[in-house]
Amino acid sequence: MEPQRSPLLEVRGNIELKRPLVKAPSRLPLPGTRCKRGPDQMEDALEPEKKRTRGLNTVTKLATSHPRGPALTARPQPQGQTTAPKVPKKTGPRCSTAIVTAVAPPMLGGKKPTKRPAWDLKGQLCDLNAELKCCRERTQTLNQENQQLQDQLKEAQQQSRALGAECRTLEGELARVQAQAEQGQQELGNLRARVLELEEQLGTQESLVQELQKEQLGLQEERRGLAARLEEQERSLQASEAALSGSRAEVASLRQEATTQAALLVEQGERLHGLEMERRRLHNQLQELKGNIRVFCRVRPVLPGEPTPSPGFLLFPSGPSGPSDPSTRLSISRPDERRGTLSGAPAPTTRHDFSFDRVFPPGSGQDEVFEEIAMLVQSALDGYPVCIFAYGQTGSGKTFTMEGGPGGDPQVEGLIPRALRHLFSVAHELGGQGWTYSFVASYVEIYNETVRDLLATGTRKGQGGECEIRRAGPGSEELTVTNARYVPVSCEKEVEALLHLARQNRAVARTSQNERSSRSHSVFQLQICGEHAGRGLQCGAPLSLVDLAGSERLDPGLALGPGERERLRETQAINSSLSTLGLVIMALSNKESHVPYRNSKLTYLLQNSLGGSAKMLMFVNISPLEENVSESLNSLRFASKVNQCVIGTAQANRK
Ligand code: ADP
Ligand code: MG
């Protein structure tokens, strides 16, 4: 394919082609330019001829007056005269030739015309005519030449115009091409920037590709690992499936066996339930045989720093079966000072014998004591209200018996934590037979006939905000203490926390003048609720563990200062509530129609744990010291009265 020629080149080609046409007339005078040989110049060129002619004319004119010689007679020209007159150097070759031709007289026989004599006018005329003719011919030639030149000029002008138009077109074209070139440059610049950008992108993409390739390699590696694992898993799955099918067969046979076992279990459950009910009945019968009101006497050991009592002061006579029998008797020997004074001899001693359901001498441990009451505590789970008191003078060991000794030693743990642990454990066992139990604890203090919550927390801690004993609802037998916390408990830790809180609350209330804890009754109550959902059975009873206020009397000989007066009021309140407790027990024992529960806050709060269906145990705590003998005897007498009471047959609170 022939490359496309630019319009510019095409124009140039045209120009080249036409050049000869333009150049040709260059030899001719262009319009507007003056020919070197203009008419004037030509005139000048002709000048010598003219001059010569004129001279001739002059001669002719002169000759006319002469007789005419033969006009065309060739006259021999003198040698050297035949040559044309010299042409001035200025004139061009053509013009000079023409002029020579015109001016020169006709050459006859190659001879130079001879100068006509002046008289030869005819000859001269003839010469002039010939010269004129020659001039006319020359003029005609010149005219033709002129015409030709005019034509050439026109043609050249046309060509010039055409070339001008073409030039303008080409200029326009050039401008357009330049604009295009500029645009092209700009585009080129843009494209270069774009190329750079793309190169940069390419670099990023390449690094990304490398990264991805690396990642791909990693993934391929991982995939291989996974494939291997999958294979392994598949193998183990196959093995498992094989084992599963074996197991299925086994399961089927086991199911059958289970069905048989379930039927057996139901049967066994029925039997077990029957046995459990029988156990409860027998257990209760046993407790009743032991007495619904039992009194245990506990003598605390002599503490370090205390005087050792004289031998024989406290005696624990063995039972009918000898020393192996659990002790039930206690003797206190007291010197009869009145009789001694009368005779002057050493005062004889009076021996006071007491008999209780059980007597624990000073060496008895907490576990030994609890063993005796564990069965009683269990009655609360079977639905019988249980109430355990600790009675005695201050310092006789009531708190030790109920809550335990100091230091958190498990050996000296008291009845409250032990009883609760036992209940939780038995409740758990009964859970296997379909029983579910819940326990809610409360712990209050009754001081000077006001009730105070020992489980109060936060701002109420130790403040003893007013608590009132109220019926849980209209017509309800259940009692509740307003403003007191009732805390659900399910493990020993929670019970421990509650006892700790109670100790803190007591410590806050204590003042230097008044060891209030010994002057108030502490009542720990546990509401027990049992349910056998399968059989629609429910049973519930309160377990009350009461650390009574010190039973000591106020020395009537003491001077009555403000502190003592306060003490007297406290003591009167304590004595009143303790004697009310005795009266209530008596009234219950005598089956009196009116039981004075309302006479004290303590009996009012405990009325549901003291009634006919309740089981009651009283610990009478005794100091081993001789100096406390009077209070010890008082306590023992009170306990003996209680011990003589028999409260009617207990009825389980079954619903
Ligand atoms: P109460 O509560 O009747 O006022 P406590 O329980 O506070 O008497 O006992 C008074 C002191 O005697 C305490 O230091 C206690 O640890 C100690 N105590 C009481 N009973 C025993 C016991 N059985 N064994 C060891 N120490 C005892
Ligand atoms: Mg105490």
Automatic annotation (TrEMBL):
It is found in: Cytoplasm, Cytoskeleton, Microtubule organizing center, Centrosome; Cytoplasm, Cytoskeleton, Spindle; Early endosome; Nucleus. InterPro entries: Kinesin-like_fam, Kinesin_motor_CS, Kinesin_motor_dom, Kinesin_motor_dom_sf, P-loop_NTPase. ATP binds at residues 392-399. It comes from Ailuropoda melanoleuca (Giant panda). Residues 311-327 have a biased composition (Low complexity). SUPFAM superfamilies: P-loop containing nucleoside triphosphate hydrolases. The gene is KIFC1. Its main location: cytoplasm. Minus end-directed microtubule-dependent motor required for bipolar spindle formation. May contribute to movement of early endocytic vesicles. Regulates cilium formation and structure. Belongs to the TRAFAC class myosin-kinesin ATPase superfamily. Kinesin family. KIN-14 subfamily. This is Kinesin-like protein. PROSITE patterns: KINESIN_MOTOR_1, KINESIN_MOTOR_2. One of its GO terms (molecular function) is ATP binding. It comes from the Eukaryota. It holds the Pfam family Kinesin. Keywords: ATP-binding, Cell cycle, Cell division, Coiled coil, Cytoplasm, Cytoskeleton, Endosome, Microtubule, Mitosis, Motor protein, Nucleotide-binding, Nucleus, Phosphoprotein. Residues 292-645 form the Kinesin motor domain. The keyword Ribonucleoprotein does not apply. Residues 25-94, 308-355 are annotated as: Disordered. Residues 132-292 form a coiled coil. Binds NUBP1 and NUBP2. Interacts with PPP1R42. One of its GO terms (cellular component) is centrosome.
